[in-house]
Queue: 4 jobs
Job 1
Amino acid sequence: MRNEYLYLKTVHFLEQEIKSGKYAPGDILPSDIELSRICGVSVATVRRAYQEFVNRGWIRRIKKKGTVLKDIFRNVPIKIGVITISDTPPFARILQGINSVLSTKGVPYIWLYNQDDIKENESVLQHCLSEGFTGLIVVPPDIHSSTTLRKLVSDGFPVVLLTRYGENFHCVCTDDYRCGYLIGEHFLKCGYRFPAAIYRDKPFGHERLEGFCEALAQGGLHLPRQRMFKVEFEEVQDLSHQHFCEREVEWLLSLEPRCDAVFVFNDHYAAGIYQHLLHRGLRVPRDIAVAGVDNLPQTMQPFPITTVDSGLEELGMRAAQLVLELHQNKPNFYVKEKITPTLVVRSSTLPTPAAALSY
């Protein structure tokens, strides 16, 4: 066990020395004896560690010359793994942004799903690494649970978190608090007095809910807990499925006093709510107004939903640009970018008669 520990320790030391830029391609690395002294290990352990880097293609062992570093970074083609929760419309739009950057640069990529599952995410990450991918754009289920992601970032591997914020990660995300705030502000201007919220039980969903509640509070409205509906990740992701959002609409119609407007965490779900309200014979917005987030085009959802443009394609573009930049430079700080959202008003929300008279 101790010999294995010393071997891994030596491999890790060499890996960090090479990745730090201390040695340029063609430089001679420390001799076996010199490195054994530096690391406090046997010469046999050093030779085994060097053989690991020969197998990786990083170095050459040249008789009477020494251990020579190869130009490993220039010769390795860039290949990006894009890992999202699923292929739902919001992620499809993000991929459009990613594709617009990577395809222009001629960089190959593969789109994989983790199904919002921690174990599946780890499995997909390992698959990408085994296939020789050189960078990752990831929407992880839980940032802190992924030992693989943390290790990759600490080793300097190009990783960009998408739509998620992590303290020690490079991140590109929407200002989710602002998304919710804009809808809350809009509901107040429309004169809605009995709103409800359907939110995703994830950090971004809680931030959107928090912004929504804060805007209402500033207008003198308090959103009680019983008027908030929490959504977990579900297998049903298809708008055409007859049961999609059925339970949420059942809940909405059970509220007292009756709901006059509902804020839904994204347009995909908002469209499902809209569809079931119509099936129940209700009118949008006269009976219940509906608002979402993402600004999906009508090719992805069929209803004129008031929404917040969260910059999905811009998110994808910036994530792709950043992961390519990380291949060229290793900044000594973590890049954090937030896309500024904007309100898009459509006919799923309209001012109430009382609100209209006030203007």
Job 2
Amino acid sequence: MKITDKKILVTGANGFLGKHLVAELINNGCSQDNLYTPSHREMDLTLIKNCRDVVQGVDIVIHAAGEVGGIGFNREKPGDLFYDNLMMGVQLMDESRKAGVKKFVAIGTVCAYPKFAKVPFEEMSLWDGYPEETNAPYGLAKKMLLVQAQAYRQQHGFNAIYLLPTNLYGPGDNFNPDSSHVIPALIRKALEAKQKSLAELEVWGSGEASREFLYVQDAARAIVLATIGYDGSEPVNIGSGEEIKIKTLINLIKKLVGYQGTVRWDRTKPDGQPRRKLNTQRAQIEFGFKAEVPFEQGLKNEIEWYISDYLARIKKEVQWYENEYPTKS
């Protein structure tokens, strides 16, 4: 599909993935004037009226919006994560079909896979068991978009595709301690431990669980490639195909930030899914995607971005304080 002349709605465009996705679309020749990127504040997609309004006159919908977070956030708000993600996706896809949208790109999640799926995860194993309990409500809500996409294709001939990205990381990541994923959470902990000269830092779980990570710019490139070149009914994994244990990950982060202390594992906290690694062959075959950014380089980029962003925010806060409370001479 040629996309440069299409009106494209990108939901979640102001989020971590969304910002990189918009940049990638522009890099592929899409005009900013043809990109519709409303914020959550402008268009709360849990409300069906907003879903109806937002798709009018749109050719392509890339649904990247989502309520998402790490293990702690999933344990705290499973109901919100289920309801918000389900309502946003289901209503938006239905209203897109009714409005005559030519293509719907649903961004799913690796959390949709069964807890003990055979490694590496293949798309055909999506229904072989129940997801890991701490993120099952989120994973199942996103998984229903696959069911809807396939049902709408069968009944209405609606061109909806479903992509399954693994855990993302990179510049612009979410470092909020209440909702961040594992990489930004560990980077922040290691930097704060270094700054405070702490002898040790605490990490949840045993460190034996593994994860696969994909650099966010690689993910954005994959989504655009699929938007242009994939029209199949089957789900497609989007990942690097590489696996790393959390224990190895924290040691790498310690090295990159220069923290010399020890790690204390809090085994009263859950590990989450035991292993995550995707089979990424289908993406390469169907639309030529292969991850490019080496993991350690991607981590360096994220750390450097966070440090510069943190310093910029501190500088802004200091400037505000000095403006509000000027020093008397």
Job 3
Amino acid sequence: MANVTRYMKEREQFKYTMLAQSSLQIQLSGTTGLNNQIYNFPLTVDITVPPDWQSVIIRQGAKTDTVNTTTSGSTTYIRTKIIPDGTTITLNKKANVTAWALTGSVTYDNATVSKIKNVSVAISGSNGYNAVVTTDTSGNFSVSGLAAGTYSVSLTKSDGFSSVNATDALIVLRYFAGLVQFDSLQTLSGDVNNDAVINSTDALQIIRRFVGNINSFARPDWIFMPQTINVNLTQNTNLTIKSIITGDVNKSYMP
């Protein structure tokens, strides 16, 4: 009964003073004004914190604890034990770890906007995360459970080369002569030797591959736009990526 009586008296006399407060930290002190040699029981108290705090790290002296917040009406608070007339009590907002999803679709830049399967999608994060996923039959990919941060996304595809023929070579020559215009993907596709210039050499390379004299170009068989994507992931994010086969400047490929 004596302990209960002392605890109740501490509760009645307890007051706390806010020393400092920010969006990430609160510092306060508590006192009863009583004789600490007699009234020294830890008190259970509720402390109001900002509404966006989900978990709080509490420090008083050498003691550290982590508790989750509780919300009642419009008030968010924690319930913890503190020692009155002890050292300063420091509350720190614990970083809220939220998982996001990164999804995307890969389509061909043709009249039917065909979905492209079997595209290898490499995802790497500044936090050390690395994964490789493959687009499904609908041209889609998805990665979930990613922490907020910066991620790099790059795409490659090794199969499915087709639809590059003499017609494409003729169109490349017409472009070189100034008779037709190319969009950005066609410009990359027409530069099969990857020298940043589209001319008769590229047309010749297309013919040579069409007749079987060579089996590859200097540029990879598949072009994606954008080729590499940097994503600052702070929410669920969906990417739309276009593709074209190198040399298929008339966009005739139909998977």
Job 4
Amino acid sequence: MTRRLPLSEIHTIHLDATSQEPLYRQLYSAIRQAILSGRFPSKVRLPSSRQFADTLAIARNTVTAAYDQLVDEGFIERRPGSGSFVAETQPDTFIHVDSIPKRAPAIAQKSPLSQRGKRMAAPLRHRATGTPKPFVPGLPDLGELPIERWSRLMAKHWRLATPSMLAYGNTGGLPALRHSISAYLNACRAVNCQPKQVIVVAGAQQALDLTCRLLLDDGDPAWIEEPGYGGARGALINSGAKLIPVPLDAEGLDLTRGKALCSRPKLIYITPSHQYPTGRTMSLRRRLALLEMARETGAWIIEDDYDSEYRYSGKPLAALQGLDQSNRVLYIGTFSKVLFPSLRMGYLVVPPALTEAFLGARGYTDTQPPVVIQAALAELMDSGHFLSHIRRMRALYASRQQLMIGLLRQHLHPWLFAEPPLAGMQLAAEAIVPMDDVAISRRAERMGLHLPPLSTYYSGTPQTRGFVLGYAGFREEELRRGVEALASLLACN
């Protein structure tokens, strides 16, 4: 005799019409849980969708949708001419859900990660996601993108895509894009390179990770700027390097202090054109001294030229790599600042002697970014529209920098001071009164402001507090409202 589920069991199901979760999903979850707990036993016949709907005073299609989902997942089965039944054998994925112990045995509580994995699992501080909030550093104005031209280029290269473009390509990147990047760097940044030295990567962070892993062994000493970029710090730590935080002076990285801390570093990471986060520029004298030291000691130099396109006064500075006569500099650049971050495209220029090794290692981590996107980017660069966009953005960001400096002086002078930087998309606003910049940053986040605290850019004891304030990606009204909100927050601190 067929067992039927009593309608009284249906009355135990409670649905919330005010919930954002659809009713059919609520009903599906309730029936599934009843089956797993044994309240709806196996092989029992369920009420028809009409009976179920009438009992709960809901639409019949709500019950039908829930039943369909349960059938698809194997919780119930339909028998033609007989109705719907709880399946005799439940899906393995869920059958033991309720039997999982609340506390895992002691052995299971140990982290499954390696020591390197634990280091790598730490999130990158200050990484902003979702809708942009003032004052996210390094964010371009996404509303000023040449989006129509970019869309046309993407559509064109998808139409013209050849089988070779849809297959696995060269690990160094699309040859056309490598030529375009090489020509651009030679002409605009005085970088001395051939296309074969250019490796296209999925953003500057991948270039950092690849370089650190190839050039460093566990325990190798690496100089890093103090304060400095957290992404570089993370890449070095993850590669097993021993960090040597080297303070800055008016000319950039203080070589005298660095040599006193570690006279023979294996690698030196720098942002000489626009130091991050302070905005200082390394002098020519200091650049030449650094190159001479690298030649004498055999140290490698990573030059991160992350936003060098945006220099607002004085002559453009040549890249450190172009001054290097000993092939000790690896040069990193990105399209995230000049186009848009989600493009995930950057480049690494390596010395000729390292090219084959880097290309080989690149193939083990990632083949290459999407080739069609690379083709569209190459045409954007070759057509002249890329440089035109940079020139337009340079003028726009220069005006926003002036506005930001004026707003700081007008509204924030009791608490913060910022030296107008010569370049970049953000500025460092240093505290002139004691403050807990980390606590203020947390409160600001709840107000819709993104304020990376200056103190967290230090590897050791913070020497300065304050905030890194991005201005490039925000219009005048947003900057005004953001500064006024920050002033109100600091006044209450």
